[in-house]
Design goal:
The protein is α/β, with parallel strands linked by helices and about 290 residues long. It is globular, with a radius of gyration of 19 Å. The protein has 11 helices and 9 strands. Strands 1-9-8-2-5-3-4 form a 7-stranded mixed sheet. Strands 6-7 form a two-stranded antiparallel sheet. The longest helix has 24 residues. The N and C termini lie far apart (about 50 Å). It has one domain. Helices cover about 45% and strands about 15% of the residues.
């Protein structure tokens, strides 16, 4: 029965993907009203996160960000559905890129690269910018719901097969292919599991745990590290800015890469605060005693 329902849902989603953007955004408007005012999806989490992150903002300013955040999330839902049908040339027209030449510079030197981004803009669309690279992989966190996990991965691999690596297999893959110049795209702003917290830093006015595994990998293999920011220009249009964090990680100080990533992410969020995933319970393990490496 579950398989039948999943097939029906998948069919309906793919029908919706055939609609033009103008109609999809009408659906997005309905989704916005439903998740904010009817379902009230994580409204308390969103409000608490914003209030603690921006103590200088008044209630009116916080509510304005909340409104824009839910509109953005609703747009991302329909844009991700559209991803299952849109042609790559049409999608490329909706994404501007700045700094891509710096990625090519290192790959031409036969060096692998790690690019860290956050849950900003439409992060699902970001990977399409790099599908022209021979060895480019997006690292993903598997979802507990197997159906939605498989559905999302089928969308992510539309334009290029074998371009995903599960986060729990990343270290093994890098060790196996350490001599092959590879581009790794990683969402690095997720909260570590409680058992794996070993470093915290002040982020948006709160002590915040961050993964340090990316830095350890970069330092061990001396992979240059980049920061990717996704700026929302308007509905369905984004700009990706690629900025180098560290060209020679082996010689960098401990936590330099992690701190540099956090500071850049924080700056980007402050410039466009509605453009981040505020519904994430990012600070559920905050203020746990650090266990430094």
């Amino acid at each position: 029965m579950n398989n039948l329902l999943q097939k029906i849902l998948s069919f309906k989603i793919r029908l919706i993907a055939l609609l033009p953007f103008c109609l999809l955004y009408l659906i997005s408007d309905f989704i916005y009203f439903f998740i904010r005012y009817v379902l009230r999806y994580r409204i308390k989490v969103v409000k608490d996160n914003l209030t603690k992150s921006f103590p200088e903002k008044n209630k009116k300013e916080i509510n304005f960000i909340i409104k824009k955040f839910y509109r953005n999330i609703s747009d991302i839902i329909v844009e991700t559905i559209k991803y299952s049908n849109i042609k790559i040339n049409k999608l490329s027209k909706r994404i501007q890129v700045e700094g891509l030449e710096n990625i090519h510079k290192y790959l031409k030197k036969e060096k692998s690269i790690i690019a860290c981004m956050g849950h900003r803009g439409n992060w699902e669309w970001a990977g399409t910018v790099f599908i022209h690279l021979n060895n480019a992989y997006a690292v993903y966190q598997p979802l507990k719901n197997v159906y939605f996990n498989n559905f999302l991965n089928s969308i992510r691999t539309r334009f290029k097969k074998n371009c995903l690596i599960s986060s729990n297999k990343l270290a093994h893959y890098i060790l196996k292919n350490k001599n092959t110049p590879t581009f790794y795209l990683i969402l690095a702003d997720q909260s570590p599991p409680k058992s794996k917290i070993n470093y915290q830093i002040n982020f948006l006015n709160q002590q915040t745990p961050f993964f340090t595994s990316i830095e350890r990998i970069a330092k061990h293999f001396n992979f240059p590290v980049f920061f990717l920011d996704i700026i929302r220009i308007k509905r369905g249009h984004y700009k990706i800015i690629i900025e180098e964090i560290c060209s020679n990680p082996s010689d960098s100080d401990t936590y330099y890469i992690t701190n540099a990533y956090v500071r850049r992410l924080e700056k980007a969020i402050c410039k466009q605060p509605d453009n981040w995933l505020w519904s994430h319970r990012r600070w559920k393990y905050a203020n746990i005693q650090n266990k430094y490496d």
